[in-house]
Amino acid sequence: MADEPTATIEAPAPAAEPSEHETDDLTERPGGGGEEVSLEEARRLRSESKNLRQRLRAAEGERDRLKAEGLSDAERRDREHQETRAENERLAATVRRLRVELAARELGVVDPEAAAALLDLDSVDDADDPRALKRALRELVKEKPYLAPQGGNGFDGGPGRGGAARATDMNQLIRAAAGRA
């Protein structure tokens, strides 16, 4: 408002009484010690005051909206960051579990999911190294022999526990099930 020109209002001379016609066009300034303003000037001042009040309300509303958006935006980013971090940790745990299951399948473990659940990854030197995982799984199978396959090759590279060779062809499996093999 400092840029707007200011108008000075002069009080009328005390000796001259306004006529009845002039009194209709003059209004006493509110809160001002008896200064009179023309009706047109009063309307202009009221309009300007109304406009300034509207602009003030709009600016306050915009300020409040920006303040609320700023807080909610920061809170939203913080929440998304926490959700992303939790999702990354969950995915990393899934990848570790799947690596153990893959290594267990490659070794021929009967139940790779159980082996993954039983294996303590903190005891493995490098959980990202497949050879280290296989060493740890071999130790686990020595402790828990029910994870070793029944028959076939053993984990120590020996012949295993013996038994007949398994059928690998679907026709052989069907014949074996029918008792004709």
Which strand order spans the largest sheet, edge to edge or round the barrel? 1-2
Largest sheet: 2 strands, antiparallel
Structural class: mainly alpha
SS elements, strand count: 2
Q: Which sequence of SSEs, written as H and E, runs from N to C?
A: HEEHHHH
Q: Shape, please?
A: rod-shaped
Helix percent reads 55-70%
Task: Report mean pLDDT, rounded to a whole number.
Answer: 76
Unreliable stretches, pLDDT < 50, 5 or more residues?
4-16, 18-23
Strand content: under 5%
> Oligomeric status of the shown chains?
single chain
Q: Specify Rg, calculated over alpha carbons.
A: 45 Å
What's the number of helices? 5
Distance between the termini: 104 Å
Helices and strands, with pairings:
Elements: H1 20-24, E1 26-28, E2 36-38, H2 39-107, H3 112-118, H4 130-143, H5 170-178
Antiparallel strand pairs: 1-2
Structure, described:
The chain is mostly helical and 181 residues long. Helix content is 57%, strand content 3%. The chain contains five helices and two strands. The protein has a two-stranded antiparallel sheet with strand order 1-2. A hairpin with a 7-residue loop joins strand 1 and strand 2. Helix 2 crosses helix 3 and helix 2 crosses helix 4. The protein is rod-shaped and about 120 Å long. About 10% of the residues have low confidence.
